[in-house]
Design a protein that fits this description.
Helix content is 29%, strand content 25%. With 540 residues, it is α/β, with parallel strands linked by helices. Strands 19-18-20-21-23-22-24-25 form an eight-stranded mixed beta sheet, with helices on one face. Strands 1, 2, 3, 4, 5, 6 and 17 form a seven-stranded mixed beta sheet that branches. A five-stranded parallel beta sheet has the order 8-15-9-10-11.
């Protein structure tokens, strides 16, 4: 079945993506589903400074890195809303807004969402003065008064963050003291822009188009008081941090939940149903932090992998390395990328060619054919010729093919450009691949005339083999620079080699880092290189 996976992960937060990384690395065919873009709660966190090994980063940056890392291990991401699930059979079914998917195992990592308090005006003014994420909305209240509802860690932390923008921050806490660590509580109490009102609750907020007033009550004395926006201010803000609600409603009929709605698991994160696991903030736990979420994801994936492999053996399902030949059409290019590529292809000035020489014993050959089929479906500017190794020795000599399978780029006259790809141009290397096509078809990238003259002045044959990882952010720049040199000088060749697909090449040169550059099969260099540095390198 084309929509059958080894593992489906529901939720693309830090727990879900960590599970995906571990599952992908275990070579499980894995799909991560989420109705929103990847990241979950961390993508709205401005600063992350307590994650071991990382001194400082933003939640958005870390989320993007996690997604790229998961994708580098072959994990697929799909934006879709889960409508229903059926965990009653050995093959689990997940019905979504874009179709039904099946898997032998499922990890639920749907997390939780902010809890609303239900005071008068909360729903009416949500998004028009009422907020639940200071990082998202804080700047809208620059130089205004802001109220923060809550007494826990989130309320204290977000109140401190809001002091960057607000004229004054008032914390409304129904408790007689903070419920978070004393260190952060003391920091809040000492801040000159923060006032704290304990034993206080919000009764009502109101206004017309924006907030104009709020009423509060002291829950010990019963005394009420009212805040009215100053005449000089347009409005004010209220941020609610009163805990979270687990997103488990879709699973309540099949999985065991606690009284708060969190999914119960054993120490291996297995739920009451074999093959179904839960990870992250969807579980009851003492500490809800990034570090516990990623730990959950790793544990759940490890347990799921053992279950899935045992189930495959029981059912007689063969484990496959890499992508299945039964994947949906256009698996290599999602709809957004297809749109972008079509726009780029319309700019090509000439028709160009690709020659694929396949090796029947290699698992990559089938994938490469699928990749080329998807590519040519998007444009008629790229002509593809597919041969088997040994079928046309003359053609192999023309493109100097020594590593198989290979994909060689031809210029508008059908001549070999010196550019070859060994592997499937995915991950970050899709960029270098498309740039190579663009530079061969014209108009191509602009290049400094002095650099161009230097490239054309190279008068001895040069072969550059660049070992890459598809998750490497530095590799595409090196590959693109080498390819550009090859396109400008027929004596220069540039070959991209995916080390994960060609371990024998990696082992030959003992490569433990990328990008790795082999010059004329003898000299080995590592690290990011600019076009200028590559040119200087081939001259020496």
């Amino acid at each position: 079945m084309k929509n059958l996976y080894d593992l489906i992960i529901i939720g693309a937060g830090s727990a879900g993506m960590t599970a995906g990384i571990y599952a992908g690395r275990s070579r499980l065919k894995t799909l991560i589903l989420d109705k929103d873009r990847a990241g979950g709660q961390i993508k709205i966190t401005a600063e992350i400074v307590n994650y071991p090994g990382i001194l400082h980063t933003s939640g958005e940056e870390l989320a993007q890195t996690m997604q790229k890392q998961a994708e580098s291990f072959g994990v697929e991401f799909l934006n879709a809303t889960v409508q229903s699930v059926d965990f009653s059979q050995e093959v689990k079914k997940v019905k979504t807004s874009v179709g039904e998917y099946e898997a032998l195992g499922v990890i639920i990592a749907t997390g939780s969402k902010p809890r609303v308090l239900g005071f008068e005006g909360e729903e009416t003014f949500r998004g028009r003065g009422i907020g639940y994420c200071a990082t998202c909305d804080g700047e809208f209240f620059t130089d205004m008064d802001v109220f923060v509802i809550g007494a826990g860690f989130a309320a204290a932390e977000e109140a401190l963050y809001l002091t960057r923008y607000a004229k004054k921050v008032t914390i409304i806490a129904r408790e007689p003291e903070f419920t978070c660590a004393k260190t952060i509580a003391d920091k809040v109490l000492a801040h000159p822009k923060i006032e704290v009102k304990f034993n206080t609750e919000v009764l009502e907020i109101g206004g017309e188009k924006v907030l104009k007033y709020a009423r509060f009550v002291n829950n010990q004395t019963g005394e009420t008081w009212r805040y009215d926006v100053a005449e000089s201010d347009l409005s004010f803000g209220v941020f609610v941090f009163a805990g979270y609600i687990p997103q488990s409603a879709e699973y309540a009929g099949q999985l065991t939940l606690d009284k708060f709605g969190y999914i119960l698991t054993d120490e291996n994160l297995k739920t009451n149903i074999d093959g179904v696991y839960a990870a992250g903030d969807i579980r009851p736990k003492i500490l809800r932090q990034l570090v516990t979420a990623v730990a959950d994801g790793a544990l759940a994936a490890a347990a799921a992998e053992k279950y899935i492999e045992a189930k495959k053996e029981q059912l007689g399902i063969r484990s496959e390395a890499g992508s299945s030949s039964e994947q949906p059409a256009a698996v290599f290019f999602d709809s957004e990328l297809q749109t972008q590529l079509r726009q780029i292809f319309t700019r090509f000035q000439n028709h160009i060619g690709l020659v694929a020489i396949l090796n029947e014993t290699s698992e990559i050959s089938g994938e490469l054919q699928g990749f080329l089929a998807d590519l040519t479906a998007l444009t008629d500017k790229v002509q593809v010729e597919i041969l088997n190794q040994g079928e046309d020795p003359e053609r192999e000599r023309e493109i100097n093919a020594t590593i198989f399978p290979t994909l060689a780029l031809l210029d508008p006259d059908g001549k070999y450009t010196g550019v070859q790809f060994h592997g499937i141009p995915g991950g970050h290397e899709i960029n270098s691949f498309i740039l190579a096509l663009y530079n061969a078809a014209g108009p191509g990238q602009e290049i400094d005339q002095n650099l161009l003259a230097g490239i054309r002045a190279v008068d001895q044959p040069v072969n550059l083999k660049i070992g890459v990882s598809l998750s490497c952010t530095l590799c595409p720049e090196v590959v693109t620079a080498a390819q550009l040199m090859a396109l400008k000088n027929p004596l220069i060749e540039a070959e991209m080699i995916d080390l994960a697909r060609f371990p024998e090449f990696k082992n030959k040169y003992s490569m433990m880092s990328v990008p790795a550059i082999v010059v004329n099969d003898t000299r080995l260099l590592f690290g990011k290189k600019s076009l200028e540095e590559l040119l200087e390198m081939v001259r020496n």
